[in-house]
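Practice record 12: protein with pyridoxal-5'-phosphate.
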Amino acid sequence: MGNYQGLKKEETRNEYGKDIHYTSWPVGKIPKEFQRPELDQVRELGYDWDDPRDVVDMFEDKVAKFAGSKYACSVDCCSNGLFLAMKYLNAEGTITIPKRTYASPPMQIIHAGCKLKFEDREWSGVYKLEPYNIWDGATAWTKGMYVGDDAIQVVSFQIKKRIPIGRGGMILTDSKETYDWLKYATYDGRNLREYYMDDEFAMIGWHMYMTPEDAARGIILMDSVPEVNEDTGGSSTYSDLSDREVFKPHLEKETGFKV
Ligand SMILES: Cc1ncc(COP(=O)(O)O)c(C=O)c1O
């Protein structure tokens, strides 16, 4: 596994002054009693890592294999994963979703600059943000859950989900290009394999990354949760959002013809 600061431990970069050392954040910096326990716990379970960010890579690989997608990009929650998927595809116009879902996906559609249409659609585990090949998969966690067909499918690790890290998500994709863009987008445009001081930053990114400790918790939970599970939500478990005042200014206008 790579050394994410591009330096060996204790190596100094003279051109930046001798105060700048390799810092494998946060291990080694925070007194043991202040550190979260998950990185040690995951090591005790037999997972080997050098840099804490290796654990994020390991969690991504593990989720991709489990889901049946080629890649999985970690993110700080499913809501932000859906938002980034829409930004990646330059989504515009109207996006149609089921009227019975959680409140944040329609809010992310609005934040991404799109109009919203609610429809009466039955769903369980996953649903599509029509017409885009983006799927809200917050309530699905079962082996082989990736819908395939080049979809961008977003998983949630919110506390009521099967893998209850508390906060977190994973963006499943079969495209390396999509994965690479999302990786930069979730972490301030940074290339985590380059020394920070040298990084040119690939884009104006967002600050929506997963911490190594949360990834370690995800690995621990995955190893203790059954592989096959019923969905934790669907059209029968959410209230109807279509009559909520807050969304009304953002609904597609009903003209009866295309304008
Ligand atoms: C259907 C659905 N979509 C999206 C989300 C948002 O997930 P997160 O809390 O990870 O952003 C949830 C979370 O409860 C959900 O149930």
